[in-house]
Design brief:
about 800 residues; about 25% helix; extended; 19 helices; seven-stranded mixed beta sheet
């Protein structure tokens, strides 16, 4: 909602700067999006002038040489290209040095040999309108030499508000003025409607469907003279973002922007049959709207039709059939109240939004229609020379009763935590235009129509008082509550993050029994793993507590594969059970005080790395697919982890790894509070295991979520981003074939120290140049210092340390 500040001040001027107005409205709940300046760059050097003479240019037929009085006693010569310039006109003049809307500065000029000292202005040259066909002619009583800004708003500030859906009253400038009045206490000037209450009379026949229209009013005007709007009206519309068109259309837009109630003007002579009907469209009805688009309508959409068919898309856009033209002499001005949900659904279905639909869909009150008609009637008479036909068609089948709410001062105090004086409460509500009457323990408050959709209960009144009183003034207190609200533990929060990360990567969660069958563990070749056997199992298939999640995942995969759902990505987050002591303790080892150790694990199983497409074949799950998934999940948690070669009896030899984490990366895993740094395992399933579950192949991993929670870092802390450039170097390292690349990276990091910010293996070579039993790894090194630009000498010194560390693991730099 764009609100020109000068227009706002016309109704409420608290004597504050624009910035202070914005602050007051923001603090009272009317959110500001931005403030911008429109019009000329500076109002200086723009004055009122009078054309003394206007003669044809001696060397140009389309130019006139004018003598213009600008009030300084020395008439100046101005060359003008407008066809309507004439002697005796009062005009707007820009003097040399004037800053135009585009930021350019006007200077002296010579046009076809004639010196021109200034410019006689057209509308578009000061941002008042878009007309460039001629100069602006001001009222003759404007004093020569007076600043132009005193007679025409050539510069203004515009506040753009972000209006919430529950406040359609703030989609009118007067609604914002009312909010400013309430927030500051400054006087609020009433809208000069200039039209007394009109007696209901049928000026034209109208029928409505109450399911889509709550109220429909029509005023009729005759002897209408279509023409351009006055400059003041064009200036206000342009600043508010509306393009001036003609006086009748501009009046409808002006009233809508001021009051928030849209109107529509019909050319009465084009309304076939001289009557209107509001009804729901039939499936397949068509209407060509004002934007010259033929629209196919659906059943239920609200339509206004004349005797021969649709003439307007109710509440959204008029039709071309009854559009106001230059030859229009009779106008039917319609102001209606539509059912908001119907307008919203129609607007979405047709992908057609307008200023009118944006207001109607939020549900306006029927009282606003008559208020808008009064203002429009005065403007039609003043600006169009029209004659208002006595009476107004007003179809209002179910008049809305005023809403009266009881506001208890004790309730107000309890909700706000502060006692606001009774007189202040009454003053706030009255400034917001609520009717206030004394009642037992508080007030009976009558809600004005324009707030009826928003204020419907006592708590809403409390909110109105609080926001105008000042939320920042209320004491900071804890809310009273009968029961404490529980929170997730750090371990629970981490598990949820881990589960969400898996779901985000396309995995489906499964829930398996906590019991399993001994045969499943035998198929996994877990003969020496300590187990917890149930004393009285329900069946042999559920006689053992599961020591890991893999059996349940495999059972789910086999069930899905048997139903032609073989492309699987599954995970489970649940507990596993072993006898007390270390999870890796052999059976018969000393037990703790508890008979069993219960740990929370998260396991995943995938049977396909990538689905097949018309461009590529499907790729089965392998070690690298599981590793990539694992990297993404643990990366989301910020865990520092790594892998070491580690065999599991149920994993493919050479395609399995143990997951480690801790403070150090040494030959053995770092110790933690849990007694071990082993996070879990990752790898491809052994072919015999996959065959036992009727799978062609799969990859899996399993993590100890409790251990993850113990070693996970806290909230990420801010780290300043250095502006100093990095130094990149590529090195090739020859190492024994059996040496893992991870150990090579670890040696490079140890040698590079803190200045080595990252290292990455990007190539591997095996061949004659490195010899048999060896390989060459290419690494990209990034050196960076947080406080300076590194020199080549510093980096060269680090290279020596890197070579020393590589030598310890049997590596050397390749020449």
């Amino acid at each position: 909602m764009r609100v020109p500040v000068s227009w706002l001040r016309a109704y409420c001027d608290p004597g504050l700067s624009t910035a202070e107005i914005v602050e007051r409205l923001d603090m009272s709940g009317t959110e500001t999006e931005r403030v911008e300046r429109v019009g000329v760059g500076s109002v200086d050097a723009f004055v009122v002038g009078r054309v003394i003479t206007a003669e044809r240019h001696p060397d140009a037929d389309r130019l006139s040489v004018c003598t213009v009085d600008t009030g300084n006693g020395h008439p100046r010569t101005i060359v003008c290209g407008a066809p309507n310039v004439a002697a005796g006109q009062t005009v707007a003049v820009a003097l040399p040095g004037a800053v135009m809307p585009d930021g350019s500065e006007l200077g002296e000029a010579k046009l076809r040999g004639v010196e021109s000292s200034g410019m006689i202005l057209a509308e578009d040259e000061v941002g008042v309108g878009e007309d460039h066909g001629g100069i602006m002619v001001l009222p003759g009583d404007a004093p020569v030499g007076a600043p132009l800004v005193e007679h025409l708003q050539i510069a203004d500030e515009v506040i753009e508000f972000e209006i919430t859906p529950n406040r359609p009253d703030c989609l009118g400038i007067y609604g914002i003025a009312r909010e400013l009045h309430a927030a500051t206490g400054a006087a609020l000037k009433p809208i000069d409607e200039g039209d007394p209450d009109v007696e209901p009379a049928e000026v034209m026949p109208v029928e409505i469907d109450p399911e889509i229209c709550l109220r429909f009013t029509v005023r009729v005007f005759e002897d209408v003279k279509i023409g351009p709007s006055p400059l003041w009206l064009k200036a206000r519309l342009s600043a508010a973002g509306q393009r001036p068109i003609s006086n009748v259309v501009d009046i409808t837009n002006y009233v809508m922007l001021l009051t928030g109630q849209p109107l529509h003007a019909f050319d009465l002579d084009r309304v076939r049959g001289g009557k209107l009907a509001v009804h729901q469209a039939a499936e397949g009805d068509t209407l060509t709207t004002l934007d010259d688009v033929e629209r196919k309508l659906s059943a239920g959409m609200a339509l206004i039709s004349d005797a021969e068919g649709p003439t307007s898309l109710a509440g959204i856009m008029g039709g071309q059939v009854s559009e106001v033209h230059d030859d229009t002499a009779r106008v039917a001005m319609e102001a209606a109240t539509w059912v908001g949900p119907n307008i919203l659904q129609t607007s979405k279905a047709l992908t057609l939004r307008s200023e009118a639909s944006g207001r109607f869909e939020k549900q306006l009150h029927p009282d606003q229609a008559v208020e808008a008609q009064k203002l429009a009637a005065r403007l039609m008479v003043d600006l169009c020379g029209a004659r208002a036909v006595p009476g107004m068609t007003d179809v209002y089948p179910q008049p809305a009763e005023p809403r009266v709410l009881r506001l208890r001062l004790a309730r107000l105090k309890r909700l706000l935590g502060e006692e606001i004086p009774q007189a202040d409460v009454r003053a706030i509500l009255e400034r917001l235009d609520f009717g206030v009457a004394g009642a037992d323990g508080g007030f009976d408050v009558t809600v004005p129509g324009f707030r009826d959709a928003d204020v419907q209960r006592e708590a809403d009144l409390v909110e109105e008082v609080a926001r105008i009183h000042g939320l920042e003034k209320l004491p900071i207190t804890l809310p009273a509550r009968e029961r404490a609200v529980g929170r997730l533990t750090p371990s629970q929060r981490l598990r949820r993050r881990l589960e969400d990360a898996l779901r985000d990567r396309g995995l489906h969660e499964v829930v398996a029994y906590s019991f399993t069958r001994p045969e499943a563990l035998a198929a996994l070749q877990l003969g020496d793993v300590p187990l917890l056997r149930l004393a009285n199992p329900l069946s042999e298939d559920q006689s053992v507590m599961r020591p890991l999640l893999l059996p349940g995942l495999l059972d789910a995969a086999r069930h899905n594969a048997a139903h032609d759902m073989g492309e699987l990505r599954l995970f489970e987050s649940a507990h596993v059970y072993r006898p007390s002591g270390s999870l890796d303790a052999p059976e018969g080892s000393p037990r703790g005080a508890d008979p069993a150790m219960e740990r929370h694990h998260v396991g995943a199983l995938i049977t396909q790395a990538a689905p097949g497409t018309w461009r590529s074949e499907a790729r089965g799950a392998d070690f690298y697919a599981a590793k990539g998934l694992l990297e993404g999940v643990l990366g989301a948690l910020g865990i520092d982890w790594w892998m070491e070669e580690g065999e599991r009896p149920f994993l493919h030899p050479g395609r399995a790894a143990t997951l480690l984490a801790g403070d150090e990366r040494t030959g053995s895993s770092a110790r933690t509070a849990a007694g071990t740094g082993k996070l879990g395992w990752v790898g491809e399933l052994h072919p015999l295991v996959a065959r036992a579950w009727d799978l062609e192949g799969a990859a899996a991993f399993e993590l100890d979520a409790d251990l993850l929670a113990e070693i996970a870092p806290g909230p990420a802390r801010f780290a300043d981003v250095t502006s100093f450039p990095a130094v990149f170097q590529d090195i090739a390292v020859v190492v024994p074939e059996e040496l893992p690349a991870a150990e090579v990276e670890a040696a490079v990091r140890a040698g590079g120290g803190e200045l080595l910010s990252s290292t990455r293996v990007f190539d591997v070579y095996r061949g004659d140049q490195v010899g048999e039993g060896a390989k060459s790894l290419a690494l990209r090194l990034e050196f960076r210092a947080p406080d300076r630009t590194l020199t080549e000498d510093e980096v060269a010194g680090l290279r020596g340390h890197i070579e020393s560390e590589l030598a310890k693991v049997g590596g050397r730099l390749r020449a």
